[in-house]
Amino acid sequence: MQNYPNPFNPSTTIRFGLPERSRVRLIVYNALGEQVAQLIDGDREAGYHAVSFNAAGLASGVYFYRITAGTFVDTKRLLFIR
């Protein structure tokens, strides 16, 4: 799912659902493709999950988060405005 709120200042929530237990990686990148945060890297049970991302130490701008769960991969855009 898309993060909410978006745009955000300074924190936002990323929600996702898993149909079965999976290894999940959730990583945030800047517009240059550099990793700025790793929010999850591990197993999660089936069901709905929420992760908070606080960008207080980052510059305003466009960021992307990529979630990988099993064979599923998706990338979404975040907009951080101070």
What does this entry show, briefly?
Strands 3-2-5-6 form a 4-stranded antiparallel β-sheet, with no helix packed on it. Strands 1-4 form a two-stranded antiparallel ribbon.
Strand content: over 45%
Regions with little confidence, pLDDT below 50 for 5+ residues? none
- Under CATH, the homologous superfamily reads Immunoglobulins
Number of domains: 1
Sheet with most strands: 4 strands, antiparallel
Task: State the CATH class.
Answer: Mainly Beta
Order of helices and strands: EEEEEE
Key traits:
mainly beta, Immunoglobulin-like, four-stranded antiparallel β-sheet, 6 strands, globular
Overview of the molecule:
There is one protein chain. The protein contains no helices and six strands. By secondary structure, it is an all-beta fold. The protein has a single domain (11-80), classed as Sandwich (Immunoglobulin-like). A four-stranded antiparallel sheet has the order 3-2-5-6, with no helix packed on it. A two-stranded antiparallel sheet has the order 1-4. Strand 5 (61-69) and strand 6 (72-80) form a beta hairpin. The model has no long low-confidence stretch (mean pLDDT 95).
Topology (SSEs and partners):
Blueprint: E1 11-18, E2 22-30, E3 35-44, E4 47-54, E5 61-69, E6 72-80
Antiparallel strand pairs: 1-4, 2-3, 2-5, 5-6
